[in-house]
Amino acid sequence: MTAEKMIRRASDDLGLSGRPNVITRWYAERNGSKFLRAPWCNMAITYWARHSDNAAAVLPKGDRAYTVWHAQDGERGGRWHAGTAANIKQYARPGALVFFDGAAPTPSAESTTSA
């Protein structure tokens, strides 16, 4: 398990667009056909984590297609840090998930890998 391995796996999908695509097809096979054409930003996190041996660190409660649920998993697990610039600098490292709230002025970081 390494952040670098997940980042390398994600970089393989740069330019991927539309749906269905390889990620939504994979996710739908595991979790139901309703995900085939659903927004897939967090499905991609699940896909990359599972295809880079990082699922235990990134998916503490299992597959996630919905970003809010994934962020709540991190919050419940004590890996959530408010979206201040100081916290982002302190906790966000390669492999950390950073969730953005479109209504909020700053992101929040979830530390998912050991430093």
Task: Offer a concise description of the structure.
This protein has 115 residues and is mostly helical.
Structural notes for this entry:
The protein starts with a helix and ends in a 5-residue tail after the last strand. The longest helix is centred in the first third of the chain and has 10 residues, at 22-31. A 3-stranded antiparallel β-sheet has the order 1-3-2. The protein is 43% helix and 7% strand. It has helices at 3-11, 22-31, 41-50, 55-58, 67-76, 85-91, and strands at 80-81, 97-99, 108-110. The protein is mainly α. The protein contains 6 helices and 3 strands, in the order H-H-H-H-H-E-H-E-E. The mean pLDDT is 87. Helix 1 (3-11) crosses helix 3 and helix 2 (22-31) packs across helix 3 (41-50).
The share of residues in extended strands comes to: 5-15%
The level of helicity is: 40-55%
Extended strand count: 3
The biggest beta sheet reads: 3 strands, antiparallel
Write the element-wise H/E pattern from the N-terminal end onward. HHHHHEHEE
Shape: globular
Order of adjacent strands in the largest pleated sheet: 1-3-2
Whole-number mean pLDDT? 87
**What is the terminal separation in angstroms?**
12 Å
* Backbone CA Rg: 14 Å
Low-confidence stretches: none
What class would the helix/strand composition place it in?
mainly alpha
What's the tally of helices?
6
Keywords:
115 residues; mainly alpha; 6 helices; 3 strands; globular
What is the topology?
Blueprint: H1 3-11, H2 22-31, H3 41-50, H4 55-58, H5 67-76, E1 80-81, H6 85-91, E2 97-99, E3 108-110
